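[#protein-structures] MJ: dropping Phenylalanine--tRNA ligase alpha subunit here for a structure pass
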Amino acid sequence: MKERLQELQTEALAKVEEASSLQELQDIRVAYLGKKGPITEVLRGMGKLSKEERPVIGDLANKVREAIATELDAKKANLEAVELEKKLEEEQIDVTLPGRPVQVGGPHLLTSIVEEIEDLFISMGFEVREGPEVETDYYNFEALNLPKGHPARDMQDSFYITEELLLRTHTSPVQARTMGEYKGSQPVKMICPGKVYRRDTDDATHSHQFTQVEGLYVDKDVRMSDLKGVLNRFAKQFFGEEREIRLRPSFFPFTEPSVEMDISCKVCHGKGCSVCKGTGWIEILGGGMVHPRVLEMAGYDPNVYSGFAFGMGPERIAMLKYGVDDIRHFYTNDVRFLKQYHKA
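AK: finished. structure tokens for Phenylalanine--tRNA ligase alpha subunit:
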């Protein structure tokens, strides 16, 4: 058996040396090291050997297996290197060919509008604040003078998660949180952009999810004229210096008095047309003086402090500024629509 194992080793190593492909090496491996190979057959006959010979033959068989496997691995590595070199020579790259152009994206139109709004109000001394989109009933309603059972809650059909948690219906809770954080110890001058949610039927002018930017300024001796001045600058910055504004009486539970703001129609310049429905004016946002009860709940003395608040929808602003006729365009991710508003 000893001589047979040595012969098998010599024979296998010779074939490995002559092999010229990876397939041949695999065939040799199976033929000599496989379960039906000659080395296995030799080992099956070890039962006829004496106790003294068995360990000697077993050790030799393992050494023969190891020697053949080592040569097979070395030859395989060599053949793979040769094959790779050949492949690299055959598959040369023509570096003179023009490259494929990379399409560069840009900010979404709503993102650009919100950033413009932020930049404008930052230039007027406002800071940008954020808050949670999953809000408590207290901050979303009660802290804004909307106690449980208040009929004005029906104006904002809400997505409730539990009895006390809901998807916020406006970004005003951020105002309540900020005033509550300061507890009447300092003035507040902030805007809070973000997504809001209401149970609404999606159509050309409504969406169950949309964006709001709300502003708040609380300090001593803040007047309605301050609100008008801020909103007037905003309108002229976004829609042109020739735009005029007007404030109409309205109602919001968290402001008193409350107003709606209109801007003069850019199509007819106030003369009346189909865009402004013949009025010469287009409604754009709401606001008013912060209700004394809201100030009091946040820790501010309404006899010392006063303030104004306002809220606007970037979607509506974008629709008016760029002539977009359907709010759903902002959310369907049609690249043809979005590309129109990429800035160079």
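MJ: nice. DSSP finds eleven helices and ten strands in the chain.
AK: one more thing. The chain has two domains: 2-90, 109-133+171-341.
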